[in-house]
Please model this.
Amino acid sequence: QVQLVESGGGLVQTGGSLRLSCAASGIIFRFYAMGWHRQAPGKQRESVASITRGGSTNYADSVKGRFTVSRDNAKNTVYLQMNSLKPEDTAVYYCNAHSNLYNDDYWGQGTQVTVSS
Model:
C-alpha cells in the first residue's frame, strides 16, 4: 500500500518560515520524482516545486528564492523549506510522487499552511 504522509503545516505570520515533510512508503522512493503542489480556496491546484530522481529542482516563479525542495532517499522523505512566507502562500500543500518508469502517480492527503498578515 502506497502512502505519502505530509506534515509540518500550520499557522505562521507573514515573513515566517515552515518546513514541510512528506514521508513515502510502499514505493521505491529513489525511482520517483517528487513534487509539492498547493491549492488555495477557489483556485486550481498548482505546482510549487519538484525534484527529480537525480536531484534537479524546479520552482514556480512565485516561490523562487523563497522555497527550497530537497529529498533524502535514505529516509524516503521529501522536504519543502518555505521562507519569507506571504499571505498568498496560504493553501493546502500536497506531496506527489511520479514515476515514468512505472507509470505511477500518487498523492498525499495534504497539509494546511496559513500565513497571517
Residues 51 and 57 are 4 Å apart (CA to CA).
